[in-house]
Design goal:
Layout (H helix, E strand, L loop, with lengths): L4 E5 L3 H13 L3 E6 L5 H8 L3 E5 L8 H10 L4 E6 L12 E4 L4 H10 L4
Parallel strand pairs: 1-2, 1-3, 3-4, 4-5
């Protein structure tokens, strides 16, 4: 069985490493970690990950048009947005939003429900 791939976009390196450890433990292959938004689009185009963890603080301040662009680039990638603010998306942007703080066990439940684990 092929491992599911993931790209982690998070400016907090310690938190990014925590996500990496969490997902590797659950059998994902972490194909990239980005710490700023300059390479995110390029990495998604190149890697086409199954899953993208996207911190809104560095993801162009949660730009709806940018998220839609990410979905166009890799329509098969599932995008999870992580935010510490009240972040509301228009109905035409289909992503899962996790508000900080949250437990990693919540990731497990959601990933299981989406058959990603």
């Amino acid at each position: 069985m092929n491992k599911k791939t993931i790209l982690i976009v998070e400016d907090d390196m310690d938190l990014s490493d925590t996500y990496r450890d969490y997902f590797e433990f659950r059998g994902f292959e972490v194909v990239g970690q980005a710490y700023d938004d300059t390479k995110t689009l390029e990495l998604i185009k190149k890697l086409k990950p199954d899953l993208v963890i996207l911190d809104t603080v560095i993801s162009w301040h949660g730009s709806h048009s940018t998220i839609k662009e990410l979905q166009k680039i890799s329509s098969s990638s599932k995008i999870f947005i992580i935010t510490s603010s009240d972040y509301n998306l228009p109905d035409d942007v289909k992503v899962d939003v996790f508000r900080k703080p949250f437990s990693l066990s919540k990731f497990t439940r959601v990933l299981s429900s989406l058959n990603l684990l």
